[in-house]
Amino acid sequence: MPAAFPKIRTIRYEGPDSKNPLAFKHYNADELVEGKSMKEHLRFSVVYWHTMRGRGGDMFDGGSGTWLRPWEDGTNSLNMALKRVPVLFEFCEKLGAPFYAFHDRDVAPEGKSLSQTNKNLDRVVKELKKCQRDTGIGLLWGTACLFVHPRYMHGAATSCNADVFAYAAAQVKKAIEVTHDLRGAGYVFWGGREGYSTLLNTDMKRELDHLGAFLHMAVAHKKKIGFKGQFYIEPKPKEPTKHQYDSDAAACLNFLREYDLLGDLKLNIETNHATLAGHTMQHDLEVAGAAGALGSIDANTGDVMLGWDTDQFPTDIYLTTQIMLTLLKYGGLTTGGTNFDAKCRRESFEPVDLFHAHIGGMDAFARGLKIAAAIRKDGRLAEFVKNRYSSWDSGLGQQIEKGKVGFKELAQYTLKLGEIKTNQSGRQEFLENLINEFI
Ligand code: XUL
Ligand code: CO
User: Does pLDDT of 437 surpass 90?
Assistant: First the structure.
């Protein structure tokens, strides 16, 4: 099989002074940061859906695809699916990305029946397995596409039609099994149509109960087959539906808690989904981290001028610094990774653009990691926050935190104290300047 990217050699680290667009300026895989290599910290992953299956259609009506992909033969055949596998691995190898991620239908086409579809998937999985073995590249997570086929128009686990629920269950069962077979580090649930377009036709309580039951069945199956990978749920508030039940990190956590699933799923947080929900990425990461549920990240960015999910490659150092500060604070990525759920612009249609995009994202994260580590080493930011809360470390604050006092004692204390004299400045501007010292 001829190389898909014959003119591109393995991307190397050349340092910040390099002017080579096909070299890393900051991502140096083996360089240690806080005692761990960048490769281990960042666990980069390439997505099959955008990178291998995207066509460069536009946001308006899908448009005609613009992307040149010389290895494609224009079909969605099994034969083409098999030819595409080594292209993905050549790309990951040249880039130095240790992981990839896929939906079942990205890698293999649907057949005329579910059993034919499963056979197609098995055939491609065999090829994926062989390439994983040959290259050492691993599967970060697998997932099932429960949103493109018309059968899922009303949702999958939350469909009004019980037969659709059953079909989705059969599909997810198989997707978990192949993820297990490929030694995937995780499995993601993204509720692509688990929501509603109008409440007029929706029994929300019943749909949520069904989604809870579906995830319990998935957890049971995971245990049955001995899959040890981490399950994640990926928040997104809207698009394709008007409202999705997994709308943001807090909503996901509340859902998991209500349906007793908190011990079984962590969160996979995506930047552009957090911003669609009206939050920053760092906010959603903090919400997940505080609940002990920060699992993995889908790395991308939106466009401040546009209100939809543009899935652009992240290049903003301020953003990656914030992400890395929170990830490091909660102990870093373990089973999860930095998964580039991002796509080139429609006008960036050449294969080399895929390299520019991923190199830029990896460098932006490497810089974010180094800057966050420097801020942590410097210690002034953490010390400021610690001091800001110092009234809780002893005396009355400590007693409140320990649950030793109630309203009666607090009222007595306050009547004796009189007015409070000790409020301190929040120093937002000082802290913003401090961060900029490192960028
Ligand atoms: C869609 C999205 C998905 C999930 C996997 O916005 O992010 O691709 O990451 O289903
Ligand atoms: Co995503």
Answer: yes
pLDDT at 307: 85
The pick from 49, 248, 298, 339 for probing ligand 1's pocket by mutation, whose C-beta has the most ligand atoms within 8 angstroms, reads 298
Is 23 in contact with 11 (CB distance < 8 Å)? yes
For residue 190, report the distance from its CA to the centre of ligand 1, in Å.
6
Determine the Cα–Cα distance for residues 239 and 387; give it in Å rounded to an integer.
Answer: 42
Taking the whole predicted model, whether its pTM rises above 0.85 is answered as: yes
Distance set, CA 386 to CA 86, 318, 389 (Å): 51, 23, 6
CB 295 within 8 A of CB 267: yes
Which domains are seen in the chain, by residue range?
28-378 (3.20.20.150), 395-438 (no CATH)
In angstroms, what CA-CA distances link 365 with 313, 322, 352? Answer: 11, 10, 20
- Report CA(123)–ligand 1 centroid distance (Å): 24
**Lining residues, ligand 1, CB within 6 Å:** 49, 103, 143, 188, 190, 234, 236, 270, 298, 309, 341
User: Which residue has 């995009």 as its token pair?
Assistant: 357
Output the six-digit token pair for 277: 């929900």
Please give the angle made by the CA atoms of 282, 393 and 333, to the nearest 5 degrees.
30
409, pLDDT greater than 80: yes
Pull the structure tokens for residue 115: 């059993």
